[in-house]
């Protein structure tokens, strides 16, 4: 018998909203939801999940369904059922959902929005990087009835994926952080990346909802500028806002927000001028939802970056900027510029492969390294096979290449001596490169 979504919701609620798609833990509490992927079939682990303590298992493969056991719940398609459950829960909670999309800065902006909105409302945000066709439903199911707002990060690597995620989450507002060269392997062109991000705007405007993004954003700025649903423009005009950077040095930013009659000084623990735009988006959303600037000031002053994003570490007289959660040509260029725009005695770089660039990969890596200025105060380490192809296009004399962080760490003592003349370092690469482990050089 096929179990309908309303019944699944009631069973889920009776199990204290506990649900997992992972069969690996030694003990499972609540419902085990069997999903399928290219290289796995969760249905195979349904019986095992019950022996580990699961109250129910949701399966879509009849070969693993036992009709005589009431703990087995059969559905036509496990993924679609999970998405439908999340959509139904979203509708029943009545929470206001803000969707966040973008090539760079999604997670940072999501966390800043959570920081700002939590100063006045009970707020939930997608945990970690749960932002795809599975992660978004799981994020929505984490919302409790007491939450007033939820910030849901949305990621995609093909056209129409953002539309699908919007149909599940039904956002009340949206934020586009940036449009850059990410997931080119799936999209095929940066124009398609722009179109994908515009899917959020299309969905919001078709449902008479609002969005927030820089009206000067490349590739879609004309479409954005003409769209009255963009609250970036309306809030700036209503409050006569002007954002003026005050101090971009060191490991934090200090800047001013001017309104019609008042001035507000903001301080937060993120560096890099590109993070100002992320903060602007969060503040504009906060103002739109009637949060006082004073409350936002206090909340932002306590904000701390995490998840290996824009995190500064100090070791004796050396500082390390760890920004190794992910990387694409746009974010890599901005991070390098951040280091080079300050007058350090010497700068060191540990740069890893950028993934999911497809046929653009070799040229993107070559272009990145070729545009690092030739400077005797710069030392460079590259990691990964894609970086190897581009290595000789960098004119810096002091440079090394390693297959991965493992071989790099085997030379830790030598590298530490080699880097001794540098007072600042950047560590950045795609998630799979695991470059955060190179912090062990200084520890």
What can be said about this structure in brief?
The protein has 443 residues and is α/β, with parallel strands linked by helices.
* Percent range for β-strand residues: 15-25%
Tell me the structural class.
Answer: alpha/beta
Largest sheet: 6 strands, mixed
Distance between the termini: 58 Å
Q: How many beta-strand segments?
A: 18
Q: What is the CATH superfamily of the largest domain?
A: Mur-like, catalytic domain
CATH architecture verdict of the largest domain:
3-Layer(aba) Sandwich
In total, the number of domains comes to 3
CATH C-level class of the largest domain is Alpha Beta
- The radius of gyration over CA amounts to 24 Å
CATH topology of the largest domain: UDP-N-acetylmuramoyl-L-alanine:D-glutamate ligase
Averaged pLDDT: 90
Low-confidence stretches: none
The rough form would be described as globular
Describe the structure in your own words.
It is a single chain. The protein has 443 residues and is of the alpha/beta class. It has 3 domains: 5-76, Udp-n-acetylmuramoylalanyl-d-glutamate--2,6- Diaminopimelate Ligase, Chain: A, domain 1 (3-Layer(aba) Sandwich), CATH 3.40.1390.10; 94-301, UDP-N-acetylmuramoyl-L-alanine:D-glutamate ligase; 311-441, Mur ligase, C-terminal domain (Protein-Tyrosine Phosphatase, Chain A, Alpha-Beta Complex). 36% of the residues lie in helices and 19% in strands. The protein has helices at 5-14, 46-51, 78-93, 106-118, 135-141, 161-169, 184-187, 190-206, 221-225, 231-239, 274-288, 293-301, 329-340, 361-370, 385-390, 405-410, 412-418, and strands at residues 19-20, 31-33, 56-59, 72-74, 96-101, 123-125, 149-153, 173-176, 210-212, 242-247, 253-258, 263-268, 311-315, 318-322, 347-352, 378-383, 399-402, 424-428. The strands form 4 sheets. A 6-stranded mixed β-sheet has the order 13-14-18-15-16-17. A 5-stranded parallel β-sheet has the order 6-7-5-8-9, sandwiched between helices. Helix 4 crosses helix 12 (293-301). It is globular and about 75 Å long.
